[in-house]
């Protein structure tokens, strides 16, 4: 797999899965716009990429702020001429009680609406260029459901519908739209979810918790031309958890 000459944007890339995706795409030769809620937060990812000889720039890009997204898109395309790859990774997770109505909007705003708006803004340029790879990070939570996470599961299930619709809409424009559904992956978000890692591992056929690099490898494949005939798909990267 080779991404030499390609330009990628990764959202929520200051740590965790987003950071691993940015590093992997840069390793394969892409120039990477590393974006997150704060520009300073992205500097660790940038230095890891540069230490490996890759090319990257940090941007503050809040996926709920349309003006901010357009501004970053304009700067990246001015600097690097185009955007070939978009990895929609930014996300938040929170538990909610049944009577709690306060978290619904925020979770849907970041995890679903934000991903849709970023995709639409960047896809317009991809359509003009006749080329694009969009990879959305969803979750196995969308496939199986879990208690006290209705908004998160709903948002991630929405990402699946959006992925399929956009894939149909943009297929004839040379654009692939796919999603990766991580299982339990060792990141700060997993720590926040507070799952019992030992009990969970016992239920995973591969008998381990996933690493951010496991997701980055799948994202890299879906960002490369080797996956050109794959679109509108959701690839579970979960050690086999959802086949049990
Ligand atoms: P993480 O470590 O919490 O990283 C998520 C990143 O997104 C953070 O840097 C966060 O920044 C950023 N972010 C939050 N709101 C944002 C916004 N409005 N605009 C831009 N960036 C924003 O989580 P992760 O585990 O790497 O998760 C990455 C993706 O994988 C998420 O979509 C998550 O739902 C999905 N996922 C993770 C797992 C898992 O087990 N880890 C499983 C299934 C799916 P701040 O924290 O500074 O706000």
Model description:
There is one protein chain. With 244 residues, this protein is of the alpha/beta class. It has one domain: NAD(P)-binding Rossmann-like Domain (Rossmann fold), CATH 3.40.50. Helices cover 45% and strands 16% of the residues. It is built from nine helices and seven strands. It has a seven-stranded parallel sheet with strand order 3-2-1-4-5-6-7, with helices on both faces. Helix 1 links the parallel strand 1 and strand 2. Helix 1 crosses helix 9. It is globular and about 45 Å long. It starts with 6 loop residues before the first strand and ends in a 7-residue tail after the last strand. The mean pLDDT is 97. The site of NADP nicotinamide-adenine-dinucleotide phosphate has 28 residues, from helix 1, helix 4 and helix 7.
SSE layout and pairing:
Elements: E1 7-10, H1 16-27, E2 31-36, H2 43-51, E3 55-60, H3 66-80, E4 85-88, H4 104-129, E5 132-137, H5 141-144, H6 150-170, E6 175-182, H7 188-193, H8 197-202, H9 212-223, E7 234-237
Parallel strand pairs: 1-2, 1-4, 2-3, 4-5, 5-6, 6-7
Helix pairs in contact: 1-2, 1-9, 3-4, 4-6
Bound molecules: NADP nicotinamide-adenine-dinucleotide phosphate.
């Amino acid at each position: 797999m080779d991404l030499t000459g390609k330009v990628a944007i990764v959202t929520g890339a200051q740590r965790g899965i987003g950071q691993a995706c940015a590093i992997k795409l840069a390793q394969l030769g892409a120039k990477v716009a590393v974006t997150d809620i704060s520009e300073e937060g992205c500097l660790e990812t940038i230095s890891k990429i540069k230490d490996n000889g890759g090319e990257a720039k940090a941007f503050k890009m809040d996926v709920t702020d349309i003006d901010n997204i357009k501004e970053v898109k304009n700067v990246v395309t001015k600097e690097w001429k185009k955007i070939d790859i978009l990895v929609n990774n930014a996300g938040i997770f929170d538990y909610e009680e049944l009577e709690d109505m306060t978290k619904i909007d925020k979770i849907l705003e970041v995890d679903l609406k934000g991903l849709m708006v970023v995709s639409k803004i960047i896809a317009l340029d991809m359509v003009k260029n006749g080329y694009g790879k969009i990879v959305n990070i969803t979750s196995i939570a969308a496939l199986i459901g879990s208690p006290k996470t209705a908004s998160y599961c709903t948002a991630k299930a929405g990402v699946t519908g959006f992925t399929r619709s956009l894939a149909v809409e943009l297929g004839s424009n040379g654009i692939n739209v796919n999603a990766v559904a991580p299982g339990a992956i060792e990141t700060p978000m997993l720590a926040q979810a507070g799952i019992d890692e030992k009990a969970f591992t016992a239920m995973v056929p591969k008998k381990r918790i996933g690493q951010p690099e496991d997701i980055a490898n799948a994202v890299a494949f879906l960002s490369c031309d080797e996956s050109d005939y794959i679109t509108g798909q959701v690839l579970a990267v979960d050690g086999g958890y959802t086949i049990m």
